[in-house]
Amino acid sequence: MLSKCGTSSLFQIPNTQNPAFCVLLQFTASISSLKVVWRKDPKLDQSIENDKKWRLCARVVREVSNEPGQIIALRYLEKRRKRLRLHIRIQTFLAQNPGLFDTYMDRVKPKTDLVTFLRPSDRLKRFLEEEKMIYGKNEPLIVAKLCKLLMMAKDRVVSADKLVEVKREFGFPNDFLVTLVSKYPEYFKLHGAPGEGRSFLELVTWNEEFAKSVIEKRAEEESRLMGVKVRPGFNWKLPPGFFIRKEMREWIRDWMELPYISPYEDVSHLDQASAEMEKRMVGVFHELLSLSIYKRVPVPILGKFCEEYRFSNAFTSVFTRHSGIFYMSLKGGIRTAILREAYKGEELVDRDPLLEIKDKFVEMLEEGHRQRAEQLRIHREMIRKDMELMAARNKEWNHHEQIQLYEDAHC
């Protein structure tokens, strides 16, 4: 990545009269004096907030589903609230999200008192079966994603433990290292056992069909439609109301003119501090975010792959310096890199096929909420009718009482 410090030694080209050298030297010198101020994007922040509730429910579902027999004592789950980042009691959570779990009484050990247990409801079981079917339907896409992650990496190898940590970001099923690796030996080879020390997933075969980035495919499609060759390039656009200094606009213009470097290209010969390496790193981040389910990934997760993808230690500055391509949200106290072009306002428009799982899950939650709302409506209606009946009886009783008082007075 380009340094923000001294830049006189970044390029070692002996012919200083070379026009290319002059352009690169000017490009390098200009960045050293430029500072990009981070600005809040409320709509992209809201896109993260919109997913907050269902993600919380998904964490609780995973917690129960990962238990032996998919059952857990309510009191044990209550003790895990802090880890689940759940700020309400489990009983309150169950009341707010009906239809996720069934409760029943059982003993933790023989001869102990009965306690409340949770298990997936029939509705949740149906969703979990649908989830498996969606994973199966999209298996070719998942295999392609996993291959691409390995193809962009140095030596085509990535830590298996790190891949497990990012499985939900890219839509991999829980058991992908067991099922996919054994099913596709022509692509993958696992070294070591995940979770038991140093374990790595290696790419066995290079597939040229997977070696094209989203940007390269877009350029090819535009070339086909326009009938002229279109050069691969980034979409650079800030939302209304965002402004940058003139010097930065000029720097961006020059930077955009540099040749695009595919994230699948071998760059072992490039200087880590060169302009070309910055272009390549932006390309890698663009491709990683494009492969992710929500076109956004927490920055700390991306930071785990500095070694595999040759990121510099100061890689986070890329997201603010290239603010027309990325947005770095601070929502929830977590820095999250978002691909701007994938969103229109707060809505994700570049939808991954695996988002069907999320849609089904949200649909299940909404069904439970509608059922709860209907139960509350019926309960309120019954209370209203009881009050009306009681009022009518009181009115009738008062009428009879008045008649009796009148008769007693005239006896």
TrEMBL record:
Question: Which GO molecular-function terms appear in the entry?
Answer: RNA binding
A Pfam family for this UniProt protein? PORR
Q: Which InterPro entries match?
A: PORR_domain (IPR021099), PORR_fam (IPR045040)
Lineage top rank: taxon? Eukaryota
User: Which parts of the sequence belong to the PORR domain?
Assistant: 40-369
Q: Which residues form the signal peptide?
A: none
Name recorded for this polypeptide: Protein ROOT PRIMORDIUM DEFECTIVE 1
- The gene for this chain is LOC105163242
